[in-house]
Amino acid sequence: MEIIAHGIDLVDFPRIDEMIKRHGAKFLDRIFTESEQEYAGKNRDKTEKFAGRFAAKEAILKLMGTGWRGKIAWTDIEVINNKLGQPLVTITGEVKKIAESLDIKHITVSITHTANFAIASAVAISKPNEKQQ
């Protein structure tokens, strides 16, 4: 396993809460996949879950060195938890093309929350070990 890049991001809950209140479904559909919205909707603190996924997406774009631009769609990145609660990343579209050009085979992410912030750290791996495939 070779780590080839790292990205980190911090998101303030009020920022995400304001965007949801101001733009509603338009914001949610632009940023989050249907599965991500379903996951957050099942939780007591939806804003915390949305902020965590937003931070994870930003961290992933940082590790790729692109930021959000060009043909990249926020929904090209999906972060869904497995049965144990570990966030798993799926990439599609333009993000997948960029990852392939950088020889990124797997992205792992960790998300944590405080009272007002979500923090995500993402690591790009060029050759996943067998457990990650």
Distance between the termini: 12 Å
Number of structurally distinct domains: 1
CATH superfamily: 4'-phosphopantetheinyl transferase domain
- Find the CATH topology: Ribosomal Protein L22, Chain A
DSSP summary, beta strand count: 5
| Known CATH architecture | Alpha-Beta Complex
Fold and architecture overview:
The protein has 133 residues and is of the alpha+beta class. The protein has a single domain, classed as Alpha-Beta Complex (Ribosomal Protein L22, Chain A). 41% of the residues lie in helices and 28% in strands. It contains five helices and five strands; from the N terminus they run βααααββαββ. The protein has a three-stranded antiparallel beta sheet. It has a two-stranded antiparallel sheet with strand order 2-3. Helix 1 crosses helix 4 (46-64) and helix 3 (34-41) packs antiparallel against helix 4. The longest helix has 19 residues, at 46-64. It is globular. The termini are close together. The mean pLDDT is 92.
